[in-house]
Each structure stands twice: as structure tokens, then as C-alpha cells.
Design brief:
The structure is a homodimer.
Chain A lengths: L2 E7 L3 H21 L2 E8 L16 E2 L2 H6 L5 E4 L6 H11 L4 E3 L2 H17 L4 E2 L10 H8 L5 E7 L2 H13 L3 H10 L8 H4 L2 H15 L9 E2 L7 H9 L2 E12 L6 E12 L11 E8 L3 E8 L3 H21 L16 E2 L6 E11 L4 H11 L4 E6 L7 E8 L2 E2 H11 L10 E5 L2
Parallel strand pairs in A: 1-2, 1-4, 2-3, 4-5, 5-6, 8-10, 10-13, 10-18
Antiparallel strand pairs in A: 7-9, 7-11, 9-10, 11-12, 14-16, 14-17, 14-18, 15-16
Helix pairs in contact in A: 1-11, 3-4, 4-9, 6-7, 12-13
Chain lengths: ~425, ~425
């Protein structure tokens, strides 16, 4: 049986998962593929630490460049992550025309343009299924399963750390900091959790999904990002009372704000109705709801991170590369689809949405009336109001759910409201997607 | 741009969806594929009826064989359905070595062995993504996305008609017949609903999924099938009270009943916990939960039937064929994976499960005691009992939820219980999956 040589660059958590998965399921994979994937080199800065997986120590090297250049390495798996040396190694492999499999969302979100252009120039394959959604074959669904569709929208819960924290905050009425500490203790959050909780990781994934859906490189700078840091359990409780659950959502959608084709790409805590499928996604699980013009709503759910789920998708990409090598058919599915349409990226100020607003008012007669009149003047319709019994002179929370309104108008209205005497502290504002 | 000629056999609902989808998204598809899919012939017994889609009437023919044989037809889409002429047409295309795209679950479930063998002999491609799950790319996920996994289990809600009926029965406390009539009125159920409500359609799909998961032809005769005909709203209400929802489920799983490798394939109304993702799948939507040894739990959700969703998946398969033709790489992904393992199919009598039992007892002292002692003697542990206040001499329903037990023991126990004086009518029995 033909052997396909693999060079693995990066022997961390996912790398160890790939080694373990290959070891366990190699015979099955070989039978399914008609060729035998064989590890030829494993490069990492640390070749001594025990990863708890069976590994031929003679494969280990600290020289990644040499591993990539080995003539018996037919495919390079990059699992270092980040935009530093990983970028160089991926480029080295592509320069040699070798197919690359990577799970590196940061690299593709920040330098996808450069990487994809190099891959095209060298006619080399690049697969990145595990860069979004871990064990969920969402990228494959977009690239192939839904290829006949115009994508209307993608709503994604793409970060398990945030979803775990939000689930715990809601079900246990925990404070954000407590839930974060628990997530860190369980290994679901990093010691420095900024990339996750500030929404950057979700935005990286949103950039990749949006690029796949609309066929052009969506730059990170064009994405509006709000994370979950400091979110209050109070708001999760109010949302629940109103029939919503708060999720950190990547929102990608096609709109025609003024007749032209535009897309929105944004990441923020979002209220979604309890009967929406995404509202059932709890804990570390991820999911993406994709609406296509033909398929309608489809959803993909599973473990968005972790050693084995991510390895599952990395190995599915390796399987694709093996099939390409066996059949001699490179560049079967190009990294991004070639689209005819030119899309414009809508800035966050230009979107329309429904809003959840929570204000803290020092109760005095007429306060609510003043606020609703500001909203009315700014073209913001009110769908519902939640106000507990007030005691004159004490501060009281008021929650307002709006009809669809212009973001710009909401920003203007809140600028005015938050300066009103009797309004204490800035209004909490979250977008709603139905 | 290279043109790829399509012969469409069957111009019914899905056929019209394919014609409309191609018409609408042709330029986009061509840009994505680097080749232009072009309809060259549309065959149907009725070439006069207006399908409400734009169609060049000169393409229409009643001679399917001739359409298939046209030299400018490179790929054949079979959308007639059933195991009659469709079988002949698919075989004609494969005999000519032409790639076939089909949505015909009955054909593949009943004659997959023959069709796949012919395709292998002629080295022709056969794609059947739309045979299960309509617009949900579940077959693609199994064939490619999860290829590195050993599949532990698949739980599927695979029939929209049944799911719609069950949803209406539960939420509106409707009788089965009323919900069925409503489904027929809305076009979700056929005039003769037997294939759907008796579970045969779900079993066809289960056979295909099981074959894909385990790499051998799973015969329909080996599948135990119970439909939803005559299911009582009472049981849906009791289930809800116990924290479960009843769904018609295809259950496919790998077990080691006595150390050897075996698989179970069965279709029956099933109680699933309310917090299980599948419990959130309502109305005509379908979903499949697939557990792999690496990926863990993944779920795929969407519209399981209908003109456009099914066309979406048919066209995704056409896209695969087009890519194969452009790259000259046939048989890239064989219809069934080649596995090393020999699996044995477990008969329904040999399975273990938890059970929901509803008995109607004429209340007299000691009845429940007698019943629990029969269950105990048959090695059936009781997890919970639900009995409303009883009135001596009146009949009273008793609901028992068991621990995991042998199907064989449950059948024996119920045989005994249902003959006891004071037990009126056969016990309602449903399996539980957690």
C-alpha cells in the first residue's frame, strides 16, 4: 500500500491528539483511503516532555524547517498556532508546493490573503477545517455541502470558553469572575483568557467563515468585536425573564442596506430566543447556524476545541490531501470560493438590529416618560418594558426591548439618556437576533 | 469555460427544485467550480404539467433511456424515487460509466449492494447525499468530515412528517389522527402516509447511514421498525411529565454484547431527555446526532425534505462530480468505506435499553406489587413510577420507567403482566435513549 509521509509541526495538545488518533485508527483510515498515512517527523521546541501518547522518539526534532523539507514528507500539518513562526513554516511548505493542513485561525484571519495567494501561486493545497469549530465539520459544510447556496447568514457560538462561562453564569447565577475562575480550574480557559473572553478568538473564526461564505478576504479590522468580560449575571436573568438567552455570537449576514450587496461581520453578546436551536447549545459546545437560499436553516453542533475533536478534523483534512495525492488532483476545492459578486463590508454604525437596554434610574415621577420620548425622537420603537416596583428616590432598573432600529440612532439616544439627571451609570446595551 | 452536461431523470418536486436552483445560482456555481453545469435533457412521464420553474421546453422528453445515453450528458441525476424504473435508469447510467447523483433512499436501502457493486465494476461515481436529511449535509459529514472516526452511534430524526405530527400532538395535545390530517392538509404528509408514519422511510435512511458508518450493506430485513401510527397523546404527556420528549428515532450503534463487535439498527418512537439537543428539533426539521471516537458528539440539523433543501444537496453532489470530471479523478470517495472489521447485526430481541411502560390497571389492593414482582423476577429494575390517585374498582394508568434491561426480559415480563386479571389492554412500551 502506498505510504503518504506526514510532517507534524507543533506537538502540543492538538498535535498529541493527531499522533494518538493516527496511532489508534491508522488501519481503518488506510482501508478507507487506499493509502497509508505515516508520520515521518514531529517538530517542536520541546522534544522531551511526555505528551502521554505513544511516539517513536526518533521522529522528534527541534528543526521544523528541516522536517518540512524532508523529501519523504508529502504533507505538512501546522499546529503551532499564532502568527509568529507558524506563518514562516506554512510559507516554507507552500513554497515547496507541499500541501498544508492547519488549525491556525489567527494565521488565516490575520494573513489569509498572503497565505492563500502563495498557495495559489504554487498550486499547493491548503486545508484548514479545524480552524473553526474543532470537531464540527462546519468548514467542509460551507466549502462543499452548501456550495450551491447563496449564504444569507451565519450565526455562530464559536468559543467554548465563553459559552461555558455564560452557561454557568445563567444556570448558577454566578458572577462573571467566579465562572471564569471555574473555567480556568477546569482547563476550559487559559491563565490569560483575553483572546477568548474579549471575543478575538471568535472574531478570527468569524473572519474565516465570512471569507468562505462570500469569497473574499474579510480583514479583522473590519469586524466589530465586543467580548463577555464583565457581563453581569443580572442581564442574563433579565434576558431569561424576557424569553432570551445571552450567547457570545458571531453574526455574519448579507444585507441590502441601500440596494447594494453588503455583509455584516460582528461579534458581541447577543440575546437569542429560548426556542432558537442555538439557545440549546450549552457548556463548552459550539454550533453554527447557516442559512442558505436553497438549504434554508442548517445547524452544525459539537465540541469546538479539545485534543481529540480538533484532531478528528485535522485528520479529515489529511484524508482529503491523501485522496488528492492518490488521485493526482491538486486544488480540487480552492481555499476560498471564486465569487462574481463584490461585497461591501458594513460598519457596525450602519447596521440595524433589535436592542436590549438596561438602565438604572433614580426613580422620580416622569423619568420613564422622558426616556421613551428620547427613544421616540431617535426613531426607536419600544417592544416591551420591564420595570420592577419602584420606590421613589431609590434606584431601580428598567429594561427596554426595542423594535428594529438603526445602531447609529441607538448610540445617539443612549448618549443623551446616559447624561440625563436621574440616570445612574451607562446603559447596558445588547443586540437581539431572532 | 468547460461545460458539464446534465441529464435530469424525474421532473417532480425535487427535480423542479434542481432546475430552479441551477437557473438561479448557475453563474455562482460555475465560478466556484471552474466549469459550467448545463442541463441537456429532462426526462419525465409527464412533460406537459407546469412545474412553476423556467425551463427550456426542448429539453423535455419522455424517453429517459435516450436522455441518459446522450453523448453530451456527462452526469445523470435520478430523482424518480422508488425501486421500479429508477433502478433500471441508474443501472443504465452506471453501465455507461456515467456518474450518477441520486436522492433515492428506497433504491439504495433495498438494492444498494447491487448498485454499488455495478458502480465499482464500471469505475463510475455514485453520489447520494440527498437520500438522507434533505438539505443537511449529513452524508458528506459521515463520508468525509468524520472519516478519521470510529462511529459509536447515530441517533436520527429523519422523517419530517413524523416529527411534525409528534410536535403537534405534544404542543397542542392533539390526537394522532388529527395531527396527521393537518400534516396532509399542509402538504407535509402524503395522501397515503404509510411509508412515513410506519417508519419505513426512516428505516431506509437508517440503512444508508449504518452502511456508511460501518462499511457494509445493512439489509432492510435486519432493521426492527416501529412507526408512530396510533401513538397516544397521553404517552407524550406522561413522557413530558417525566422529563422526556417522544421522537421517532433511528438508532444506530456499536455494541459489544459478548465481547464481539456488533451493531444495532432500529427505528421506533423513543423517549429522549428534554435537555438532549435532539429534543429541541421540532416540526418538519430533521437532525442526526453522530458520536465518533475522536470528534465526540456532533449534530447536523436542517430541513429533511422539500424542493429547495433537497435540491441544495443534489447540486452539492453535482458539484463533486463536476470537480471529479474537471480533475479527472473518479472514485475519489467510494460509496461505502472499506472497513477491516466484520460486524454482526444484533436482532432487536438481543438489545438492552431502558423502557417506558404504561399499563392500565383496574385498581385493587396489591396490583402494583404483583407487577413489580414480575418485573423483578425478569431482572428489570424500576427507576420511577407514576401513578395518579386511584379509585378502587376504577381503571387507573400506571407508568413505570425501568433501568437498563434486556429487551427479551421485557417482552417476557409484559407477556405475563398483560395476561394478569386486573390489567386491561396491552401495556404501552417504548424505549428510552439518554
Amino acid at each position: 500500500m502506498k505510504e503518504i509521509g506526514i510532517g507534524l509541526i507543533g506537538f502540543g495538545t492538538v498535535g498529541a491528539g493527531v499522533v494518538a488518533g493516527l496511532d489508534r485508527n491508522r488501519a481503518m483510515l488506510a482501508a478507507r483511503l487506499g493509502a497509508m498515512p505515516v508520520l515521518r517527523a514531529i517538530a517542536d521546541v520541546d522534544v522531551d516532555r511526555d505528551r502521554g501518547v505513544p511516539v517513536d522518539r526518533s521522529l522528534l526534532t527541534t528543526d521544523a524547517e528541516a522536517a518540512i523539507r524532508r523529501p519523504d514528507v508529502d504533507v505538512v500539518i501546522e499546529l503551532i498556532g499564532g502568527t509568529g513562526v507558524a506563518r514562516r513554516f506554512v510559507k516554507t511548505a507552500l513554497e515547496l508546493g507541499k500541501p498544508v493542513v492547519t488549525a491556525n485561525k489567527a494565521l488565516l484571519a490575520e494573513h489569509g490573503h498572503e497565505i492563500f495567494a502563495l498557495a495559489a501561486e504554487k498550486q499547493a493545497d491548503i486545508y484548514f477545517g479545524a480552524s473553526v469549530g474543532g470537531g464540527i465539520p462546519i468548514i467542509r459544510a460551507l466549502r462543499e455541502g452548501l456550495i450551491a447556496n447563496r449564504i444569507e447568514s451565519i450565526y455562530g457560538i464559536l468559543n467554548g470558553t465563553c459559552n461555558y462561562i455564560l452557561t454557568r453564569m445563567e444556570t448558577e447565577r454566578m458572577a462573571f469572575e467566579t465562572a471564569l475562575k471555574e473555567a480556568q480550574k477546569k482547563g476550559y480557559a487559559e491563565a490569560d483568557p483575553a483572546l477568548d473572553i474579549d471575543g478575538v478568538d471568535t472574531a478570527h473564526k468569524a473572519a474565516i467563515l465570512a471569507s468562505l461564505a462570500y469569497g473574499f478576504n474579510v480583514p479583522m479590522a473590519a469586524i466589530s468585536i465586543e467580548g463577555i468580560r464583565g457581563l453581569s449575571a443580572t442581564d442574563l436573568a433579565y434576558a431569561l425573564k424576557l424569553g432570551y438567552r445571552i450567547k457570545l455570537l458571531a453574526v455574519i449576514k448579507r444585507t441590502q442596506p441601500d440596494g447594494g450587496e453588503a455583509i455584516e461581520v460582528r461579534v458581541h453578546p447577543t440575546l437569542i430566543p429560548l426556542d432558537h436551536m442555538l439557545a440549546s447549545v450549552s457548556g463548552v459546545y459550539n454550533a453554527a447556524m447557516v442559512t442558505g437560499d436553497l438549504a434554508g436553516r442548517t445547524m452544525y453542533y459539537g465540541r469546538g476545541a479539545g485534543r481529540e475533536p480538533t484532531a478528528s478534523t485535522v485528520l479529515a483534512d489529511v484524508a482529503d490531501v491523501v485522496r488528492n495525492l492518490v488521485k493526482g488532483s491538486k486544488r480540487r476545492v480552492p481555499p476560498l470560493p471564486a465569487e462574481g459578486t463584490a461585497f461591501r463590508l458594513l460598519s457596525i454604525e450602519a447596521i440595524r438590529s433589535r436592542y436590549y437596554l438596561r438602565m438604572t434610574l433614580v426613580d422620580k415621577p416622569g423619568m420613564l416618560g422622558q426616556i421613551t420620548s428620547v427613544l421616540g425622537r431617535c426613531n426607536i420603537g419600544i417592544a416591551s418594558v420591564l420595570q420592577s416596583e419602584a420606590h421613589v428616590g431609590r434606584s431601580v432598573p428598567v429594561v427596554i426591548v426595542t423594535h428594529e432600529a438603526n445602531e447609529r440612532d441607538v448610540v445617539a439616544a443612549l448618549g443623551e439618556i446616559d447624561r440625563m439627571p436621574g440616570v445612574s451609570g451607562p446603559t447596558v446595551r445588547m443586540r437581539i437576533e431572532d
